[in-house]
Each structure stands twice: as structure tokens, then as C-alpha cells.
Amino acid sequence: MRIAMIGGGYVGLVSAACFAEFGVEVALVEADAARLSALHEGRMPIYEPGLDRLVADNVAAGRLTFGADLPAAVAGAEAVFIAVGTPTRRGDGHADLTYVYAAAEQVARALTDYAVIVTKSTVPVGTGRRIAAIVRDVRPDAAFDVASNPEFLREGSAINDFMRPDRVVIGTESARAQEILRRLYRPLYLIEAPIVFTGLETAELTKYAANAFLAMKVSFINEMADLCEKVGGDVHDVARGIGLDGRIGRKFLHPGPGFGGSCFPKDTLALMRIAQDAGAASRLVEATVAVNDARKSAMAARIIAACGGNVRGTRIAILGLTFKPETDDMREAPAIPILWRLAEDGAELRAFDPVGMAQARPLLPDSVRYCRDALDAATGADALVVITEWNEFRALAPERLSETMRGRVIVDLRNIFDPAAMHQAGFAYHGIGRAAP
Are residues 133 and 235 in the same domain? Predict the structure, then answer.
């Protein structure tokens, strides 16, 4: 079986490599010359654990190829996946479908035989219908169907999510397209992964609904954390107490500085606009967006308060910059507004992130100093702030930090440290949603 993948970004590259691992012949098309050059040289343009090895193995096996020639990739492909970016459109919050529709036009011109055109990108309801209309306008003679196959990949564990998914959602009204995609995903039948066939609009909406629901859980537990601080509760016990209920579940009930990344911020905003335009406004999604925006702004104020209300001239060690661990993605990362506010208030910032510093530099104040490791960042610091919960930070011994730092303020926005141990080591420890010792 042969397929084409249009777009070598996070979703496209991971999906292409995983399909190739299934034994499928995959031709990946990437228009960005720098990214394509990196792929040809065996360098990954994104950080994802295990991806470099997976790509190398399938390139060596001849199942995965990279190029800029879209017609050559599409010729003879049974399925053509569109996996290009759908960023938030400036000014109104809607998803920008410029790249999706441009790809659809190019695919239409390149079709030589029947193919299923599949949206892998996250696209608003109605996009599949619009793609079908574009292809018909460009190539009235073309034989094709359109399907929606949204991705549910978590950065940092994307390969496992693809290979052992909770579910695969496929939206199409064509029996022929369904049969092709069923064959494509046949390896997952062997592990009994649920494959849900449904309509185009339903599949498109499912992706947004899933991300919005998870984002809503994050905002909810953050509000509960604030309440715990006011009434003397422990948010971790609250999260466990409700998460053990099978109807709720334990995942995404971790308090922190707010959600970021490539999906939740733009997808909640897009769903909010979709619902408003359809005349069925989603108040819960609107509240989720508002709570998260306010959360990020409040974190900088929390740090300043922990430092006595004034950070001018205060040396602050920042541990973690990416929006989550095991990725170099800085999109909508809480670190961005936090560090800008601290820098504007005169703080001296020393930052370390295991993989995200190169991506962070263009987004953060020029005054930030980037360090070689966590202890280097902490050296001589008056305060230390944890923004991203990389595992290596959890192993930092309070005694070592006490020897390294000048001050005694710890602001742990991910609750990775033991408050009692920090208190015993002489630190003024500030966590999220739990009382200080």
C-alpha cells in the first residue's frame, strides 16, 4: 500500500513514520527547504523521544521518503493525507485554513487515479466539504473521496499514542474510502484498538470536543487549587478523590500555571468561534479559555509576591521553559508571559530547559541568561521557579539547592518538590493548591 503525507511538521512526520512502521510505503512532502534538508540529513526538525530512530529505520528500509515534489508523491497513492498547519487566524480566533486549501488544490491537480484525500490536520466542521468542492472545481474529472482522520497525539508520547491509540476516528461517507482506511489501519485491529467510523462533520467536531474537554479539566483543577489555598485544602487529594471516580478519570487533573502547546489554546479558541457562528455558543469552552488566560497572568504575580512584592534586582532561576516536558515546543508556553512580566519588573533571569532553549530564545526577553543545567541556573539565585516538570528537576536535592542558592524562596508551579523537605532545608516553599508546612 502506498500513501502520501503532505506536511512534515509534528503531526505529518510522526504519522508518516508510524504508517511506514506498519509496512506502508509513505512519501512525505515538505515545502520548507530547511526542514526538508534536515530530514534528508537524518536530523529531526522537532524533538520527540524515539522519532529519530523510527525515521532512520524506515528510511533505511525504503518505506519512508522525503521530497518537495507533490505530484510525484501523489501519483499512485491510495490515500493522500493533508497534515499542514492550521494556526489561529489573526484577529478573530478562527483556524486559518490557508495551507489546507492550498494543499487541496495542489493534490487535485496531481491526482492520476482514485485516491482518498484525508485531513489529518485539526480543521473546523465543514472543511471536508469545502475540500471536496475545491477538488471538483479544479479537477471535475478526478475520482476521489474525502475523509477526516483527526490525530490524537500527545507531544512527548506521540509514537506510543499512534501505535497503541485509545481510538482511531475516521469520518467518511464512502464505502470505498472506508475500506482503504480500514486496510491502512489493519495493524491496529490486531491489538483491538477501537476504530470509530462516522460522518465527516462528526469526525471534525470530535477532535475539537476532545481537546476542549481535556483543557476544561485543566482549568477546573486550577480553579480548585486556588480554592484549596483559600480554605486550607490539598488539591492533590481533591484530584485523587474525584479522579478515582471512573466517570471522571485521573488524567489532566494536575494543577499548574495553565495549559499551552500547539493544540489546547488554538483548538479551544477555534471551537468557541465555531459554536458562536453556529448559534450554539459553548459557555463552558469560553470560560475555559478565560480561566487559562487569567491563570498565566496570575503566575507572574504569584512569583513577585513570594519574593516580597518586588523583584527588581532579584536573581531568579527558571527551571523549564517548554509548555510540557519531553518536547521542545514553546507555542503558548506559560513561561512566555511569566518571564516577560518578571523581566519588565527588573528581575535578573537565569533559565534552563533540557531541550527547549533554542526555541525559547526568539520568544523571551533578550536579558534572559541561558544556563547549562539546573544547578547552574540556581547558582547565586535569590529565588527558584519551576515552570515545566521535567523529571530531572524532581531529583534536585533540597540540601544541594540550599548550598547553591543565595536566597531561600522556591516557587513550584508544578508541585514536583516535597514541601516538608523544602521547609526542613530552610526554604520558603510556595506550591500550587496546597498549604505550606
Answer: no
